[in-house]
Design brief:
The protein is an alpha+beta fold. About 20% of the residues lie in helices and about 30% in strands. The chain has a domain at about 515-810: 3-Layer(aba) Sandwich (Rossmann fold). It contains 16 helices and 38 strands. Strands 30-31-34-33-35-36-37-38 form an eight-stranded mixed β-sheet, with helices on both faces. Strands 2-3-4-5 form a four-stranded antiparallel β-sheet, with no helix packed on it. A four-stranded antiparallel β-sheet has the order 6-7-8-9, with no helix packed on it. Strand 12 (about 230-240) and strand 13 form a beta hairpin. Helix 9 crosses helix 10 (about 650-660) and helix 15 (about 765-785) packs across helix 16 (about 805-810). The longest helix is centred in the N-terminal third of the chain and has 21 residues, at about 160-180. This is Peptidase S9 prolyl oligopeptidase catalytic domain-containing protein. GO terms for molecular function: serine-type peptidase activity.
């Protein structure tokens, strides 16, 4: 644990001191030493064991699959740090959907070779060794993600009939054995042998396939690495027994969320083409699945002009659910007012009925009629979906009783909450006729917020319902402004009891940090809607404002704190309400922090998210500057010490603010964009056309690219800038930081470039995280004139063009 500094006694009077003199126990070592990144929560269907992924900075940032059994024991599923196993996929470079459960086996993508592996976890205390499922995939440059399981039945039986027949067959065998004469009974060894033979026969009849998003990075004939615009994305079925790979769908630029129906007859997925991103325009597709492990012709069920995501089948296979931000669908369309946010322009939940039989009602299999009968579950100015930067992430699960457990973001209350949605039939309809009438009238499903004491759900929910509608186990990942993000589990007696659960019923299985921030050092954010300008007219933007917080220190009378404006990445991401230790690092040292949700952020509806279309470098810059101006006008911060920092797209916004505004005194770019055209021409496939929407298509918009690129306006910079960059970054190539740093250095501005070895887009290693955090504070101190130093166990940072007097102050 890092140096905690002084420990003032209870009731001690805070010492008056300026920035740079506030001692804080929240050091970079404190933040990283016992910290992990949490994600990918799942609940094992047959026993309720909870699984999740841990990204461990102290193990080089690798991801490890962990299981918590029903008896409370926690075990690593992934072999140790020296094994070469790291549960992480790089499809789209951002990954996601790293593993899937199938009974007592887990299938996962390994980072090193991007191949699929299977691992037996029937005994969590001693999991089996990972076994390669896709031999040859590394040689052909194939990556896998967002995997789902398809249990393929023999041609003579559908999945439904085979599954239904299995218990009856087993019961008949047991009855026959029990009624046989004693003399004719099989010996125990013979019985076991017979059971093994039966299991082998069943396995021969049933094939297990893994349906996954595949991304090919090598030419299948030449074996040469493909340029980003030649990378091939598709949906495939991988035979677990043979490792053979069969294409199920291809031709679109991108695929996500392949989901096999419970009966095994249908495959649903989302696809989209350049220049769209998955939060712009996508299509929901369905194709029939064949007994030979192939797929029939696909049908577009929904989309094209909206952003559909997350298809999911109901457990009984009667409905297909999805999230869409269309203006209105199905039964509510006639009532929809395009100007009313409650009936459109938000990622809401929908469902459509599944056609009764393959090939029914024409060539589309009845899906056209089904789509026309789409039902909006709870049309409201709420977001039930998020920009799918990561594959495999879900925000809802349909339960066997027909209710839906879902995450949602309500702009009226900051944060992301968990709710139970019940159909109007359950609450208001006593007869089938009344139920049908309620659905036809488009009555909203009843939404009940589940009390958890948490405001920042970011993964899950994953749900397991015991057979017969019994005990329910919910797994999720969430936090709060005063609580570190944690893997949580809730167990109740039935699905109906979910809405009656209390915050105390949730159990933390793993926290992202076991280092608790001491009392008196925690800054609690205030959700602020502040004035800005959009399209020349008054508008509103949003932020979380954190005041300085340190029980041992206060500012002298007449002194105000510096402000750090944080511009998030994406740029479609959002400021999170969960505990952010890196923000607390600064607030406990005397900084105020504005975590800005500029126009383009998620959580405020499609119109707000689309403010950035064609206006990147304008709207975000205006809103970040307006946030600082609001804090100054409110008398909360020192107008001479306004700083700004951001990563990735937020790094671009930081540089653009410093190039095009004189609001800020210093800035830090973390793997940020300096040259828009260079990014458009040299980034990976997933984002290679992203700027067509944010800026404009090339070559027609080339003048706009030049006008908004910070590199082209290096002469307009007047504030010092530091750059922290991973040398293996394929999203924002390191050249971006190198050329921008050189341009500012040549101008004589104080600037620093820290290249972090082995890091990609975002820092995962403990040393890198610490260097960037302490280095940012050190840089601000050097250029703004307050004392700051790098910890002795970290390398020093060279600041070019720093005046000799300021150099001496930092020594």
């Amino acid at each position: 644990m890092g140096n905690r500094g002084s420990k003032p006694s209870a009731g001690a009077t805070p010492k008056a001191a300026g920035v740079g003199e506030w001692e804080s126990p929240i050091t970079s070592a404190f933040i990283t030493e016992k910290a992990v990144r949490l994600g990918g929560v799942a609940v094992r269907p047959h026993d309720g064991a909870v699984l999740w992924l841990e990204g461990r900075p102290m193990e080089g940032g690798r991801q490890v699959l962990v299981i918590r059994t029903a008896n409370g024991a926690t075990h690593d599923v992934t072999p140790g740090p020296d094994s070469g196993f790291n549960v992480r996929t790089t499809v789209h470079e951002y990954g996601g959907g790293e593993y899937v459960l199938a009974g007592s086996t887990v299938y996962f993508t390994n980072f090193k070779d991007q191949a699929l592996y299977g691992q037996d976890v029937s005994n969590p205390a001693a999991p089996g060794a990972p076994v390669l499922v896709t031999p040859g995939s590394e040689a052909r440059g194939e990556r896998f993600a967002d995997t789902t399981v398809w249990e393929l039945q023999p041609p003579a039986a559908t999945a439904a009939t085979a599954d239904a027949a299995a218990p009856a067959a087993a019961a008949a065998d047991a009855k026959a054995l029990a009624s046989a004469p004693v003399q004719g009974q099989l010996q125990q060894g013979q019985m076991e042998q017979q059971q093994q033979q039966q299991q082998q026969q069943q396995q021969q009849q049933r094939r297990r396939l893994l349906v996954a998003v595949s991304e090919l990075h090598k030419g299948q004939t030449s074996g040469a690495e493909l340029a980003p615009d030649q990378v091939v994305n598709r949906l495939v079925a991988v035979d677990v027994a043979s490792g053979s790979v069969t294409q199920l769908a291809g031709g679109a630029d991108f695929y996500a969320s392949p989901r096999v129906s419970p009966c095994g007859r249908w495959l649903a997925w989302v696809q989209w083409d350049h220049p769209n991103m998955p939060w712009d325009h996508t299509s929901l597709m369905v194709a029939p699945l064949r007994p030979d492990g192939t797929a029939g012709d696909p049908v577009k069920v929904r989309g094209g002009s909206s952003a559909v995501q997350q298809p999911a089948w109901s457990p009984d296979g009667a409905h297909l659910y999805f999230v869409d931000d269309a203006a209105a669908l199905g039964a509510v369309a006639a009532k929809a007012d395009p100007a009313d946010p409650a009936t459109g322009g938000w990622w809401n939940l929908y469902r459509i009925p599944v056609p009764a039989a393959t090939g029914a009602a024409g060539k589309d299999g009845g899906w056209g009629a089904a789509a026309a009968a789409a039902e909006a579950l709870h049309p409201a100015a709420m977001e039930f979906g998020f920009p799918p930067w990561l594959l495999g992430k879900k925000t809802y699960q349909v339960l066997p009783d027909g209710s839906v457990l879902a995450l949602y973001c309500d702009p009226a209350t900051a944060g992301t909450s968990l709710a139970l949605l019940k159909p109007p039939t359950a609450a208001t309809a006593a007869t089938p006729a009344a139920a049908a009438a309620a659905t036809a009238e488009g009555k909203a499903w009843e939404l009940t917020r589940i009390e958890s004491g948490l405001l920042s759900f970011n993964s899950g929910p994953a749900v397991r319902v015991a057979p017969g509608g019994g005990k329910v186990t919910v797994g999720a990942i969430a936090g709060a402004p005063d609580r570190a993000t944690a893997v949580l589990a809730l167990t109740v007696g039935s699905a109906a009891a979910l809405s009656k659960s209390r915050a105390a019923d949730w159990k933390a299985l793993k926290t992202s940090s076991s280092s608790k921030i001491p009392d008196g050092y925690l800054s609690v954010p205030e959700a602020v809607a502040y004035p800005t300008v959009f399209d020349g007219a008054p508008a509103t933007a949003h932020m979380l404002y954190y005041p300085p917080a340190n029980k041992a220190f206060t500012y002298p009378p007449g002194t105000l704190p510096p402000l750090l404006v944080n511009s998030h990445g994406g740029p479609t991401s959002a400021a999170a309400t969960g505990l952010n230790a890196q923000i607390q690092y600064f607030t406990s040292r005397g900084f105020a922090v504005a975590d800005v949700d500029y126009g383009g952020s998620t959580g405020y509806g499609t119109a707000y998210r689309n403010r950035l279309q064609g206006r990147w470098g304008l709207v975000d810059v205006q809103d970040c500057a307006a946030a600082a101006e609001w804090a100054v006008a409110a008398g909360r911060v020192d107008p001479a010490r306004l700083t700004i920092s951001g990563g990735s797209a937020g790094g671009y916004t930081t540089l653009a603010c410093l190039a095009f505004r004189k609001t800020f005194s210093a800035g830090v770019s973390l793997y940020g964009v300096a040259d828009l055209k260079l990014l458009a021409e040299h980034t990976h496939k997933f984002e290679s056309k992203y700027l067509d929407g944010l800026v404009g298509p090339l070559p027609a918009a080339e003048p706009v690219y030049a006008a908004r690129s910070p590199l082209a306006h290096a002469a307009d910079f007047s504030a010092p800038v530091a750059f922290f960059q991973g040398d293996q970054d394929k999203v924002v190539p390191p050249e971006q930081a190198v050329v921008m740093h050189k341009a500012l250095k040549d101008r004589g501005l104080p600037t620093a470039l820290v290249m972090l070895a082995g890091e990609q887009h975002g820092f995962r290693q403990a040393a890198s995280i610490r260097t960037a955090l302490d280095g940012e504070l050190y840089f601000y101190g050097a250029v703004l004139g307050f004392p700051a130093s790098m910890p002795p166990d970290l390398p020093g940072i060279t600041i070019d063009n720093l005046p000799p007097k300021q150099q001496q102050q930092q020594q």
